[in-house]
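the two lines:
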Amino acid sequence: MTQPLALPMEPATWNRGRVGMACLIFGESTFFSVFVVAYLFYIGKSASGPQPSDVLEFPVFATVCLLSSSATAGLAVKALTQSNTVRAGLALALTVGLGAGFLGATANEWFGLIYGHGLTIGTNLFGTTFYSLVGFHAAHVGLGLLMLTLVLGGVLGGKVGAGDSERVEMVTWYWHFVDAVWIVVLTTVYVVGV
Amino acid sequence: MSASTETRVPEAAKRTTAGWSQSLHDWVTTVDHKRLGILYIAAGFFFLVIGGVEAILMRAQLAVPANTLLEPQEFNRLFTMHGTTMVFLVGMPIITGFGNYLIPLMIGARDMAFPRLNAWGFWMFLLGGIVLYMSYFASMGLYGAGTAPDVGWFAYAPLAGKAFSRGNATDYWILGILISGFGSVSGAINMVTTTLTMRCPGMKMNRLPLFVWMMLVVSFLILLALPVLTGAQVMLLFDRFMGAHFFDTQAGGDAVLWQHFFWFFGHPEVYILMIPGFAYASEIIPVFSRKVIFGYSFMVAATIAIGLVAVGVWAHHMFTVGLGKGLSVWFAVMTMIVGIPTGIKLFNWIATLYGGKILLRTPMLFCIGFIGQFLVAGLSGILLSGAPLNWQLSDSYFVVAHFHYVLIGGLVFTIFGACYYWFPKMTGRMLSERLGRWHFWLFFVGFHLTFTTMHVQGVLGMPRRIYTYPAERGWEVWNAISSSGAILQALGVAVFLFALVQAFRRPQWAGPDPWNAWTLEWSTSSPPPAYNFLTIPEVRSRRPLWDLKHPDDPDWEHE
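prediction for all of em together
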């Protein structure tokens, strides 16, 4: 028991931040699973219309936005690691813009569903499961967007630099997770469900 | 046992000159894993007393046939609040509290990985508990219907939906548990991260104390199960407030879906509560047998196996809804498989006792009680896993007997054992051995009077959750015995609380290592300083303190 005053060793790859974020993502995945299961379970069981095939359109724009934002988020971290704050700021701004584009597309879709087709959460089982699953995903996009905006503000204000790239990477892990959930939601709602 | 007590007042236990407001401020704002651990455990015991009073009221009502002490509706609220309290506000905080207190100390770390998240988790849990109990005062709601929730601890939808549960009592149940769930999940994230990244030099995974291994598995189960409950509760909230139809059979919703969701959480939850009991026993039994634990790697493997099987057995709570032959067989077989890793553990504890120099101190008494009672609990569990017998016994007092054998005979006994074992570490004071014996024997006899008899009531056909029963069913004697046992249990807990007070009024100082134990928490002072270890320890075996005490024959030569 003779070790000088020092923090315990953190393995280079799996440090606190990474394990913590991985655990959060694991927990969030099980949360989303329940809504995915409910959605799949209730496909075609609505007692009244509208049915998914009547009203849903494959969300190309939103999907392109969100999937490409994962790439720009990755670029931002890489740039930050290399102390290139200008490029990091640009990539982050692009990421935030793409994320906002996704949310805008979702808002537009919901507006059309609610006012065009009269589909709300209380209309039928499709409305119930659709708004819950897509809505919870959108809420998580919103949370990720808030964190990315804070990081962007930090980079622009000169408060976030190369030394924080590890922490910024954890934010992008969350963002990649939200992106991955979208692929599951997309498959469930717009491919399997229609 | 040598050097079991000290006469010096330990530095950290000395009364500080700070006033009560300062010390209240310190406790409320603390991010120290030790203080948070104690807060968790203390809050858990606070709710244990409340849940216990609810149990006593129910046993008083059932003591004689056709009793009119409680209204039927009041009885429903009591069993709902009793079950919810004991699972979410007693079991969860106490296991999290011991985990919080002990994991960093056992792995040679100075705190948890995320101290502030840790504090947040505790206050979320407490807020959840307060919200649940606010229902008694605040949930008269729109229709003036009900005060506390009366939907049972598993709140089956659609019966918990708006149509059948008017007023807001059920909403308090949903929100209280949902909020405390955030606390549990954050605690689990913290425990996993701490265990995986904060271990001191030499503390490889295969040298972790079994306590830490088991809490790691528990934490994974929390991450797996709790969000499922949260999701289902959100659905129920949507149904109740936004007109959604998840559990609305009128709109094509399924009446059994909630049961699947709830028990997909609910059954792993049983292991979330029970594995920590195994963890305490696995630390206490070797120390009081003066032997190394038998089959360390098998214990780890069995724990992981229980964790894996835990996610495939949930519908054995639902045999009576009519699952069909295929599913019934699957869940029956999976449930019986749980008996294998659990049996391995029981045999390992017995093999640890075998040939050991057994010291029957209070922690050991509770653990030996646990071994026998948990065996009975496991056997009645295997009985219930057979679907045909389950159809006969489900929702009878046999089931009540079974899960109280698990959660009291298993968990609460080991929690008391853990309290007697680690209280000296937490406070620097010993708990009285004499009072400990009174506590054990009162609680032990009371437990068996109450719950062993319930098997008989169940076989005689007494359904659970009835507020009273007629005289001629042959249940009177058994119920009277059950109720009298409840009094003995309450007395046992009262003795325990008195022993806590005595420990502070007439302190008997413990010293750093009163039990001559082997894990790292005993290498620092009692109570440990805020930074736990002056120098970060370095370990070479599973019993670092043995190595230190026996340099001539260290463990690492044999492992």
